[in-house]
Specification:
The protein is α+β, with helices and mostly antiparallel strands and 265 residues long. It is 34% helix and 24% strand.
């Protein structure tokens, strides 16, 4: 973004230019005309805000210690904003009780598992947006998602997942009912991605709510016996049919440190 603002120099650059204008080669003093510089124009507040937001997003972007050792799925570059679309899940106390049972048991197989703090179903991959694309991208999402109604789905099947480059492993609850409605939403989100020449969602997606994660590919430790025991915990949990029946009320888009909400009708 700074390349588009070359007309605005920093105060340090201006001081260097003024100092350079005071002396000519050989140390001779410049003529008085050199000191009659044009007054500087103030930088618009909206432009300053843009850089403040970008700097907040970039602070610690490469510090994996702040992200539990997780590795970025694409290189960080100034002006790029990691963006994805999802449906947030507002948890109930009973869900947190079930989560605690599942994670505690799974840790007997993989001790490094960390419980998620927020829960959602993804409707897109993580993609990269330039700052000036964010508003038109969000506006296009708003228009395409405006006609969708609220709906229910059931997420009650335990499953193990990895990210694309297999640097992280997850345990999650796969959606077993409501798959068709989620596919319809993904279809509209994909159209927005195509407008901006961005990657669309996975083919034949397994919609799920991630429960816990760990660094590395540990599917071998979590699948098989561990996964079956986790499914038994879900099946035996009191009122699990009610706890794992989710009503979706809104769609969200996160771009860098910005959040946008699209309520369902």
């Amino acid at each position: 973004m700074r390349a588009a603002l070359v007309g605005y120099s920093s105060s340090e650059e201006e001081e260097e230019e003024e100092e350079g204008g005071r002396q000519q080669s050989g140390g001779a003093r410049a003529s008085p005309r050199a000191s009659t510089a044009r007054p500087r124009l103030p930088v618009p507040e909206c432009v300053l805000d843009m850089f403040r937001e970008q700097e907040e997003e970039e602070r610690g972007a490469e510090d994996s210690s702040k992200h539990g050792g997780r590795v970025r799925s694409f290189p960080h570059e100034r002006g790029n904003w990691a963006t994805y679309v999802y449906m947030p899940y507002k948890v109930q106390e009973e869900f947190l009780e079930l989560l605690d049972l599942l994670v505690s048991h799974a840790r007997t197989y993989v001790s490094s598992l960390t419980a998620m703090e927020e829960f959602h179903v993804s409707l897109s991959q993580s993609v990269v947006l330039r700052y000036h694309w964010i508003n038109p991208f969000v506006q296009s999402l708003k228009e395409r998602l405006a006609s969708f109604d609220r709906f229910f789905c059931v997420a009650n099947q335990m499953k193990v997942y990895t990210n694309q480059n297999k640097t992280r492993t997850f345990i999650g609850l796969e959606v077993s009912a409501g798959h068709f409605q989620l596919l319809e939403l993904v279809s509209e989100v994909d159209k927005v991605m195509e407008e901006f020449d961005l990657p669309t969602f996975y083919k034949d997606p397994s919609f799920h709510i991630s429960l816990a994660w760990c660094v590395g590919d540990l599917t071998g430790s979590l699948e098989g016996q561990c996964l079956q025991e986790l499914q038994d915990i879900v099946d035996r949990f009191e009122d699990s049919a009610l706890v794992l029946r989710v009503q979706w009320e809104q769609i969200r888009c996160k771009s860098g440190n910005k959040f946008f909400s699209f309520p369902l009708r």
